Amino acid sequence: MTHKSKWLLFAPAGLVVVGFGTCLVQWASEMKRNGEPTTQWVAAGTLALGVFNAGLSLFGRGVAESVLYQLKEKPAETPAAEYPAD
Q: Keywords on this record (predicted)?
C-alpha cells in the first residue's frame, strides 16, 4: 500500500470516527442530564472519549502519510553552493 493510498484512507476515516466520537459524547451527556445511573453515563462517556481519541489517531496517521507521500514525490533539489568560511 502506498503512502498516498494510506493518506486517502486514514485521513477521511479519522474525520468520520472523530465525528462519531463527538456524537457519542453528546449521547453520554444526555444520559447524565436524564438522570441515568452514574455507572451507565460514565461508561458511555469513557467509550465516547476512546472513540474520539481513536479518530484523532487515525487522522494523525493520515497526516503523517501525507507528509511521507509529499517527501517521496518531491523532486531532488540540487545542493546549494558552499559559502567560503570567514
A: Membrane, Transmembrane, Transmembrane helix
- Fill in the DSSP letter of residue 86: -
**Sign of the four-CA dihedral 42, 48, 52, 53:** positive
- The C-alpha atoms of residue 67 and residue 14 are separated, in whole angstroms, by 16
Task: Say whether pLDDT at 55 is over 70.
Answer: yes
User: Taking the model in full, what pTM does it have?
Assistant: 0.79
Angle between helices 3-33 and 38-73 (to 10 degrees): 160
DSSP string of 4-56, one letter each residue: HHHHHHHHHHHHHHHHHHHHHHHHHHHHHHTT--HHHHHHHHHHHHHHHHHHH
